Amino acid sequence: MSDTLPYKTGEIERIMKMGPVVPVLVVDDIGKARETAEALVEGGLKVLEVTLRTDCALDAIKRMNLVPGAIVGAGTVTGVETLQQALDAGSEFIVSPGLTTKLGEAALKAGVPLLPGIANSGDIMRGMELGLQHFKFFPAMAAGGIPALKALCGPFHTAKFCPTGGISAANAPEWLAMKQVLCVGGSWVAPAGASPEEIVALAREASGLGQGHTGQ
Length: 216
Hints:
- By secondary structure, this protein is of the alpha/beta class.
- It has a single domain, classed as TIM Barrel (Alpha-Beta Barrel).
- Helix content is 37%, strand content 16%.
- The chain starts with 8 loop residues before the first helix and ends in a 9-residue tail after the last helix.
- The model has no long low-confidence stretch (mean pLDDT 95).
């Protein structure tokens, strides 16, 4: 009996379309994990990416999963080992800074929605060979910004993107205006030291950036 789960290609797109901004969270204080998630969801941002950059990140995913309405995924997944750790913590989707065939195949086998990082044509082609069509353009600004992504959208017109890296409240609308951009990733909605009230306000502002944006 195979232990491979069916990979639903439309599931990652459904998650990407749930809001114009995916908060990229670096959780240093586990005690604030749940209240941060609650504030973001209250502000209209339900899809949360917890980066595996801190010792408490996996525990943060577990705590944030307790928040009604939150869809919590793991970011900075760099290999099969961290993929399994993220899945064991209850991650509902996986985000990686890059894409290797080994990681892609493991995620597909697990049946978990995957948003792998790409920066050039070769990365996208590797993903498409695995059957993937949804990618994180990373690091968005350092990799050439909007002109670079527009150039990639030509030959890869079926691909959909979530630019991350250098995205801010000021430049997010320009990224979201692109037809193949479904959402953007950003850390500005939950800055270090912000109170829950401040995070709610920032999330509400960010959730409004997608008004009129269909990503179609």
